[in-house]
Structures are given as structure tokens and as C-alpha cells.
Amino acid sequence: MNLAQATVLLWVLGNLQAFEIVEKENIFQRTPCPAFLMFDNAAYLADMSFELPCHCKPEEVSAVVWYYQKHLGSGHTKVLTDFDGQVLTEAAQVRVGSDMLVRFSIHMFSLLVFRAQPEDSGLYFCGTRKGDYFYAYDVDIQSSERMVATFEDQGQEPFADEYHGSLRVFTTFWEWTPCDRCGVRGEQWRIGLCYLQSPDLSPRYRKTLPDVVSCGSRAVPRQLRAKARDHVPELLLRSCLVPCEKKKKIQEGVMALFSYVAKVGSRPWLPPVPIQFHQQKLGHGLIISCPGARPEHAVAWDKDHQYLYRTQYLKGVNGSMRVFIDHGNHLHIRFTQLEDRGIYYCWRQGVRIAGLRLGVTSRGRYPVSFSNPEIRAALVLTLIGYLLITAVFITIHLCRCCCYLFRCYPNFSP
């Protein structure tokens, strides 16, 4: 290829890129904003992260501001922006229980909310700094505290639809997740959220199906929402078996290097996945998270060569479980014991990606910190014990003094 042909090719590619950018910008020109502000209904499970795109805006607006209201017309409105352009962009930095003002990000006019909680349910508006609204959402975050698990392999069936006159309450299931393990028996599940159908819904809220919205939507009148309160989210599980994809062979040069470093007649032990070491104190609780996993992902846990299936280890299956998996895919170990030592492997979307070598110790000195809730609880209990002993001591001596003054045998005769 000569210089002239290369120049022509670069010019064509540049024009194509410019055309692509213009096409992206023209999306807002082709999507006019509604004359009357409507609310798109969207439902998610707690601890999920979601994105709300601003589907329309005037062409002259170069930056948007998102607003949040708990109820329509309420006086308290949160402004979801920082005018310096510094926003949180990584979900890994978000902590559980953090306020929504530190759990959001605005990217290309879209609002991203990380690890949403039921308190984040409400109305979200896309607009300008002056308070002009272009697009709005009605977001319903449903709690997973009372979530019910249904095991299809055991013949269990999901909840039946409920009817209260013209009101119908039912569960809408998402797609099945991929199999959480490969090469061995795994599990897959689908999340079901509460929805209802009624002709008495507010017409200002846009529905995917006629007269159908999520149970926590602001379109549902208060009296109807109370009737759907007992219909909780569901988790439908079933077994699966899929083959593993063929892994790429390790380069021969790398294997030759390992063979050279290893002793004669032996091979070095290569962990199948990256493994992190953690030392845990005996009797303390531990929560293990799978790197990069979200509640809607297919996540599985193994201890050494033991598969921790949700059929036995899912939260709520047995009220006295010491080791269990919650609905956010975290592995909980309550009151760590010596037999908990081992390597815990994590699967994500059918691929084993990480491991944690857990060590349990009962010896050694540990720094005392008043920020530790267990230390604070121990100090409070000790103080209460001393106060009770002091009160008993004073009461006994007061009784002895009274007995001494009245000689313990007062004369009540006239």
C-alpha cells in the first residue's frame, strides 16, 4: 500500500468515526421529550446496581442533573450530582449501608446507582440545574429479607397468583442464570419480583403491560399496596450440568521454567485460581464475597472438594445454620471453628475465579480498639454488671442499717 492509498484509507475511517459520533448525538434529536412528564416503572432486588438512561433532552443541554423524590410533590428533593465533576465510578468502592449520595454515578447522561436498598425506592428525574425535568422513572427496590426459595427438583412450585376483587398479585420471573458450575452438577436460579394488575392505577405512570406495575410502584394506591404486602420476592432453583470450556494450554516455555525451578522428579503446585490468605480468630464471624459478583450473577461456593449447594446452604433453609449463603451471593460463617479451615473457592457465571485460604487461630494478642462493636458490647456488659453489684451491695447495707435502727422488731402495739 503506497502513501496515497494509506491517506485515503485514513480519511475514510475518520469520516466514519465522525458519522458515528453524529449518529449518537442525533439520538436525542430523534427522541422528543414528552409534553406531559410520565414515569417509567422499573423494579430491582435489594443490593443490585442499576442504570437509568436519560432517553431525551433538548439539544442545547450539554450536561444533565438527576433528582430524587421519595413521593411525588414532596418538599424534600435530593440533587444527585456534584458540580465539580467528581463522581463515584466503581461499584467495588461502595459499602453496604452507605447513603445514596455516595452510591451513584452519572455517565453519558445516564444515572448509575450501586447496591440499591429499599430506601432508594422513589422517583428519579433527569433534568437541568435550573430544575427543568425531561425524563422520569418510578423505581421499586424490593427487599430480599423475606425472600422465599423454591426448589424445582423437590417438586416445589412458585406462589400462585392472588386475587382481591379486580386486583391480581403475581410474581414475574427473570431469565434463568447460567449454570454456576461446569463439569460437575451445578445449580441455576431465576429471581421473581412482585407485580400486580389493577385498573385503579395512576395514569401518569407508564406500564410495560396494560395496568401492570411492580408492587412498590408509586402508581399503586395505598389501600392496594397494603393488600400486596405479603407477596414477597421468590427465588426459583434447579439443578444443571454443563461441560467446561477447553482451557488454553500453558506455554511450553513457562512449563519448562517451572520444571527447572522444581526439585528433580517433582512438579511445583500451581493453584488453579488466584488464592488469598486470611487469618480468622476463633469464635468470630466472617463474610466472604466473590470478586466482581452481583446478586443477579450465578455464584457458587466450594470448600476444598466439598460443593456447598444452595439446596442445603441457602439462607433460610434451616434457621440454625452456622454456614450459609445469603441472597446476595455472600458466604457467611458464624462463630468460626477450627474445622472451618481450608480453601474456599468461588465460581462466577460457571467459571471458578478465586479462592480464599482460611486459617483459624485461638492464640496471640490482638489490638484493642473501641471502634470494634464486640469490644464495646463487652465493656457495656461489664459496666452494667458492676452497677448491679453496687446496687445490691448498697441495698443490703441499707437493710442492715434499718434493722439496726428499729432493732428488727418494731413494736406496733398501741
TrEMBL record:
Predominant location category: membrane
Keywords, sorted A to Z: Glycoprotein, Membrane, Signal, Transmembrane, Transmembrane helix
Location within or outside the cell: Membrane
InterPro entries noted in UniProt: FAM187A/B, Ig-like_dom, Ig-like_dom_sf, Ig-like_fold, Ig_sub, Ig_V-set
Topology relative to the membrane: Single-pass type I membrane protein
Keyword Transmembrane in annotation: yes
Keyword Membrane set for record: yes
Transmembrane segments: 377-399
GO cellular component, as recorded: membrane
Residue ranges annotated for the Ig-like domain, each copy included: 268-346
First and last residue of the signal peptide: 1-18
Family: Belongs to the FAM187 family.
Protein's name according to its UniProt entry: Family with sequence similarity 187 member A
Native source organism of the sequence: Phocoena sinus (Vaquita)
